[in-house]
Amino acid sequence: MSKYLRPEFRDLDSYVPGEQPTGRSFIKLNTNESPFPPSPKATEAAAQAASGLNLYCDPDNRELTKTMADYFGVPAECVLMTNGSDEILNFAFITFCHSSCPAVFADITYGFYKVFANVNGVPYETIPLRSDMTLDYRDYLGINKTIFIANPNAPTGLAISTGEVEEILKSNPDNAVIIDEAYVDFGGESCVPLTQKYDNLLVTQTFSKSRSMAGARLGMGIGSKKLIADLNTVKFSINPYNVNSMTGAAGIAAIKDDEYTRRNCAVITENREYTTEQLRKLGFELNNSSTNFVFAKHPKISGEDVYLRLREKGILVRHFTPDNIKDYNRISIGTREQMDALISVLREITEEIK
Ligand code: PMP
Fold first, then answer.
1. Alpha-carbon distance 196 to 184, whole Å?
2. Cα 172 to averaged position of ligand 1 atoms, centre (Å)
3. Distance (Å, rounded) from C-alpha 52 to C-alpha 240?
4. Angle, CA 157 vertex, CA 152 and CA 161 arms, to 5°
5. Residue from 162, 187, 158 nearest 177 by CA
6. Taking the model in full, what pTM does it have?
7. Ligand 1 centroid vs 266 CA: distance in angstroms?
8. Is the CB of 86 under 6 A from ligand 1?
9. Which atom of ligand 1 is nearest to the CA of 217?
10. For the packed helices 258-281 and 336-352, what is the interaxial angle rounded to 10 degrees?
11. Residue 252 Cβ < 6 Å to ligand 1
12. Can you give the pLDDT of all 354 residues of the chain as single tens digits?
């Protein structure tokens, strides 16, 4: 630590991303990426855009924003494109949270929320999930705080209904409510249509999961015109050229090839159901996930042990250390072959303890 560091950052716990290994090749089931490459149309569009990299990209991302707005059936002024959905989430913390309006989110949810709050000097509170890891929407009614809900939630994989979100929106008219839909394409119900009815709603989505573009860094926020204008003021105060030309071009092509995304999502969903069934047969306990991952624990083997044994055999999954989830591993859903490799190692491990 240098002596120049801002004092309030001395104890900052930054976000720890899942491992991106180099060297040894792993079956990578630890960061909820898609096992499929981006649409060939997206890679071709990115390659073509490369020759224009001498110019700055469009700071308003007009073509991309319009394409996305048409896709969702909302006006272009209701959409803001960002560098991954992490960026729009960070903008939301900066824009809508302050000392008299803390952020609030579940005790078990996306770990970055806490980090965004801390780095921006915003107070936050957490609300416990129920013991079965479901979120009780009634805990969020009329709380007068800026609410962040991952729906479906990570790492639990569980979703609440749009009707429940609507109750939260109605009862918090003076506060922004952010619904993080990073995993919605794998089985959740999107709240995007509600953005045209409730001016306190911001929905965030990403190209990192269902659209196979995690490395391109593309995300977005959809909300009322006024919310998006506020977020744009912050964006233009931090990073006007936040979506690079290659990513922007790839994003437009990917949306136009939605059929490709739908097909991949159907395969992932099918592989998730298969994996869930197989893991249950091996004695693992897991919920019915609505995402591209499952969150599983075994009553007789510690979460860390499962993680380490899989790693030894060349399979990476995500293990978290906080006490309330340390028994679990979050396992991304890959191809059928990858899931069979996982199941076969887990079978060996569970047979040893018999
Ligand atoms: N929200 C949730 C719930 C996530 O799990 C992730 C992925 N780590 C993100 C947002 C951010 O994803 P990205 O920045 O790649 O869009």
1. 19
2. 25
3. 18
4. 35
5. 162
6. 0.97
7. 20
8. yes
9. 15
10. 10
11. no
12. 999 999 999 999 999 888 888 877 899 999 999 999 999 999 999 999 999 999 999 999 999 999 999 999 999 999 999 999 999 999 999 999 999 999 999 999 999 999 999 999 999 999 999 999 999 999 999 999 999 999 999 999 999 999 999 999 999 999 999 999 999 999 989 999 999 999 999 999 999 999 999 999 999 999 999 999 999 999 999 999 999 999 999 999 999 999 999 999 999 999 999 999 999 999 999 999 999 999 999 999 999 999 999 999 999 999 999 999 999 999 999 999 999 999 999 999 999 887
Q: Does ligand 1 lie within 6 Å of residue 110's CB atom?
A: yes
Strands 27-29 and 315-317: parallel
Encoded tokens for 348: 């060996």
Judge if the beta carbon of residue 214 lies within 6 A of ligand 1: yes
Q: What distance in Å separates the CA atoms of residue 350 and residue 347, rounded to the nearest whole number?
A: 5
Query: Tokens representing 204?
Result: 């965030």
The amino acid occupying position 241 is Y
Residues 6+ apart with CB under 8 A from 262: none
Answer whether 82 contacts ligand 1 (Cβ < 6 A): no
Ligand 1 mean position to 206 CA, how many Å?
Answer: 7
Q: Which amino acid is at 93?
A: F
Distance from the alpha carbon of residue 86 to the mean position of ligand 1, in angstroms: 6
* Domains, the chain: 14-37+259-352 (3.90.1150.10), 40-256 (3.40.640.10)
